Fold this protein.
Amino acid sequence: MKVHQIFGLLDDEMPVLFVSCSKKVKEWCFKNFYDYVLWNKSMCDKFVSENYPEYKELYNNVRYKIMKVDIVRFLILHKYGGIYIDMDCIPKLISVKENDFKIAYKIAPKRKHYEMEIIQSYKENNLLLEFLDYVKTQIEEKNILIARRVPPGDKWRLVANEPDGPVHKTLTDTLEAYMVKTGFKGSYRLEPLKSNLYAIKRKKLLFLLFAAPIILFCPTNCFINVLKYMIGKLKS
């Protein structure tokens, strides 16, 4: 069985905590005859590009680089199976049953909940891809088309004012008109080839979860309970 960890996507040095926890994970793998794999940035980038090109856009266009780890962990497990463990986590079980599907379950003083810090899965588990597909729809729904270019030249009309509303002479005038109309103060995205302008209204991806250093494995009967928890987080 393979045990996967990921580090280096931020081009930073490994913190002392990560070094210490990773050493314990390696020792755990050695005792149980598990294969340990530490994925770095070039390995992850190449893996996504060659094996899951349909998720390349999602992977490359995350708002924060750390979110790439949240995406590629699902793809790695889908391809190879095994266990993914965050760099600041220590497995507490002596060993685990192979070809199983488990999600980490965090036990804290005030609440108990599922986390994405430790995931075990058999390979080609399509539930992993289904979750990423769900995340893609959430991101796409937050990219709101607000204006289209009106040829010739660089004139623009707000979608809300189509088909015969006022035309703005510049992109700057269009943005100002939209901000006055909606009060939106977020980010924007321009697609020149499609002549579209979007307002980006994103929520934090659910599985961007920063771990406590000690986590327990806990089996789940199916993915639906975890997915319900995730959906609730996305809507909150």
Confidence is low (pLDDT under 50) at residues 204-236. Residues 16-32 form the longest helix (17 residues).
